[in-house]
Amino acid sequence: MATATREYHRGSPTDLRAPCPVLNSLANHGLISRSGRDITKDSLLAALNEIGLASSAGKLLCNIAFKVHTDDAKNPPPGTAAMGFRDPDQVNDDGVPVLNLDQVGRAHAMEHDISLTRRDRALGDHMRLDEALYERLLECPREKKAFRIWDLGRYRKVLYAEHARDNPQLVFGVHQQASACLEVAAMQCVFGTGSRGGVPMEYYEAVFRDERLPFEEGWRPRKWMFLVELVGVALCVSFWAL
Ligand code: HEM
């Protein structure tokens, strides 16, 4: 398979990275531009397909992500969206719309508070992995070998109570909760070992710590996935998270 032959190496300090460990893994394997710059929608879609994400989910995400960003969520001008990442006229030399990975963390778009491994925007670095949060995440599964959706749902509930207490500027409404549950669901659907299995601990370590796809640990991309599965799993996560 083509993906398995894509060499992994971490970006240099000048390369751009996102607050999303999976997008960073795609860049570290060269499935999208390694520099994190000038990423086209087609290249991102192809990369998401290679890791087995439901193609409709990939299209949906990319259609939003490649919109020009506006802070006016209520009345977005045509062609813009609050969740979009691009600047106006951000295109490559061929005139094709592109985005950079650091734009994935832009304010008032998709990035949100109460991340699993990033600090809240008002309290610290919302882009990069926080070691203490990461160590805590690894403690959350009851069975130490795998992350189950109920482990992560319950953990999100605990985190919410802590952040509500400690961050007076916390922003975490229905949209942010839905995104957070969808992120957990996407991990389960892409890296999980079947409907009854969770995501092996070492897969989480590879993705979050190394920003690497866990091929060495035995993971292989799924051939089929449907959007409805992702949404269903996200609803289950929210059952434990609320
Ligand atoms: C176009 C595709 C994608 C976009 C635009 C995107 C965007 C984002 C953004 C903006 C965040 C930051 C959220 C936060 O503040 O915590 C994030 C985090 C995250 N994403 Fe992605 N993502 C994409 C694909 C994926 C896929 C395919 C997966 C899983 C297979 C995934 C898993 C995650 C996880 C687990 C986090 C949470 C990190 C944390 O809480 O520390 N993402 N993503």
Fold and architecture overview:
Belongs to the chloroperoxidase family. By secondary structure, this protein is mainly α. The chain folds into 2 domains: 1-111, Orthogonal Bundle (Chloroperoxidase), CATH 1.10.489.10; 140-241, no CATH class. It has 8 helices and 6 strands. It has helices at residues 21-28, 41-50, 55-65, 131-139, 149-166, 174-191, 201-210, 227-241, and strands at 39-40, 68-69, 80-81, 98-99, 146-147, 199-200. Helix 5 (149-166) crosses helix 8. Protoporphyrin IX containing FE binds at residues 19-23, 44, 48, 53, 61-62, 65, 104, 110-112, 115-118, 183, 186-187, 190. The site of protoporphyrin IX containing FE (HEM) has 23 residues, from helix 1, helix 2, helix 3 and helix 6.
Salient structural properties:
single chain, 242 residues, mainly alpha, Chloroperoxidase, 2 domains, two-stranded antiparallel ribbon, two-stranded parallel ribbon, 8 helices, globular, disordered N terminus, binds protoporphyrin IX containing FE
In short:
The protein is mainly α.
Secondary structure layout:
Layout: H1 21-28, E1 39-40, H2 41-50, H3 55-65, E2 68-69, E3 80-81, E4 98-99, H4 131-139, E5 146-147, H5 149-166, H6 174-191, E6 199-200, H7 201-210, H8 227-241
Parallel strand pairs: 2-3
Antiparallel strand pairs: 1-4, 5-6
The structure holds protoporphyrin IX containing FE.
The site of protoporphyrin IX containing FE (HEM) has 23 residues, from helix 1, helix 2, helix 3 and helix 6.
Keywords: Heme, Iron, Metal-binding, Oxidoreductase, Peroxidase
Protein name: Heme haloperoxidase family profile domain-containing protein
Pfam family, one: Peroxidase_2
